[in-house]
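User: I'm curious whether this sequence folds into something compact or stays loose and floppy. Could you predict its structure so I can see for myself?
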Amino acid sequence: MSASEVPTPGAETAVERRVRPITCSGCSETWTAVSAAHCGSCHRLFAGVRLFDMHRSRDGEHGTCLDPETVLGEQGQQRLFFRDGMWRGPELTGEQRAKLAKVWGGEAGDSIPA
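Assistant: Here's the prediction. I'll summarize afterward.
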């Protein structure tokens, strides 16, 4: 192999960076979703920062973790659901998916996550 063929250390493609697993040194959790938020205290994985924030309480000096199943909305409805290996918000209704498809310029079933 010539010097020009030797890969530069740390020179990865954007695709390689996106699919590299992310891990937690305090537990065995591994994920690849860049937008996911892992809690270093309770070691639960959330689909996004907003959902992570919902599970945190202001109680205590540094806050505490709430059981995601007990996080309720104003009308007492469950707000966090465990699906596909992480805590997520409620699934979209067909009507919500259709509205998003219009905003995104697609059809009701086109690449709209469930």
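Summary: The chain has a mean pLDDT of 83. The chain is about 20% helix and 15% strand.
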